# Entry
Amino acid sequence: MNTPLADRIRPTELADVVGQKHLLTPGKALYNMIDGGEIPNLIFYGPSGVGKTTVASIIANKTKRALRKLNGTTASTQDIKNIVAEIDTFTAPKGILLYLDEIQYFNKRQQQSLLEHIENGKITLIASTTENPYFYVYSAILSRSTVFEFKSIQTEDIIPAVKRGFDFLAKENDVEVICEDSVAKKIAQGCGGDVRKALNTVENCYLATPFADGKKVITAETADELAQKSSMRYDRDGDEHYDIVSAYQKSMRGSDPDAALHYLARLLEAGDLPSACRRLMVCACEDVGLAYPQIIPIVKAAVDAAMMVGLPEAEIPLADAVILVATSPKSNSANNAIKAAMSDVRSGNIGPIPRQLQNKHFDGEDAEVKGQHYIYPHDYPNHYTYQQYLPDVIKDAHYYEYGDNKNEQAFKKYWDKIK
# Structure
């Protein structure tokens, strides 16, 4: 059993591929391309273990082309040259179908070395990536390819694959394999939408179960022990990380505590305490802000507590803070104001600081008006009097607009009366 189970039972027909019905149902574009036998250059984008390599293999069989596989993490330019050398030889009389896994790890020069052969049709490229191809694939390759996104497989679609794996092992080893009722579901739920992970767990369960009365009985306890810990995907440097933290903050901003807790749980289950804390602090400042300014030290205290106690107990103060942020009134007035001010600064709208605000107490001989003439607000009623604070070139700039929440409207009412 040196070859993994996932490879031993890899489907050879599109109808047997698990999931991806949005791509592989008759009438869909990719299905029609494969069924017609004329395959353009393709880029398969999606998480690992969802059928990208399987579909590429099926395509190679359908087109009668020589399939060559490279992995972007290990392949070199010489590997590409070796494949190019096969063109128009007896080993590849109908051309080559190159399956390039993890193309995002190929540098620009390596990707460019494929262009000529892609354009003349000698090589048909099927590249796969777990990262967004519009960010990681060289634009010239991208413009000559059609991108198809593969999705994570749902639990209900993986269960039949798990059962098929156990049936295959039983037949392969000529032994009766019996699974307790919950085994297939536990394995399917624990693989995070990755069929390869699920089938690895199937094989591990088989190997870890002793013979008894000439058969193997796979228990739920064994499945629990061997199934992947998390039913989600997570890579701190990958798209999934940014999707989760984005959903986490947007759920708090959108005042949905249940969704916010869900994404917090996913971050904590992955052990990403720093991201959970950072986005929570950002959201308290950016999205609650001046509608409830006291929330900032409260959330900071919760974050400090979480970082001090660590996981798993960190989930408690963070849950408190996430619920508080999600259910608090919202205002992004301060965020909008600083963005407007930053825009002026970055575009060069700055100008000299008004003389009355400068930190100096003497004038040069060229100064037309001598003296700083700073007005001290505390010397006036209500601790306020008008003076110009902005530079002359933007003296009428206006960045801050009061939010419509109770807190900021109270401030507005006060300053409207004073000013």
Notes: Strands lie at 42-45, 66-71, 96-101, 123-129, 146-149, 176-179, 215-218.
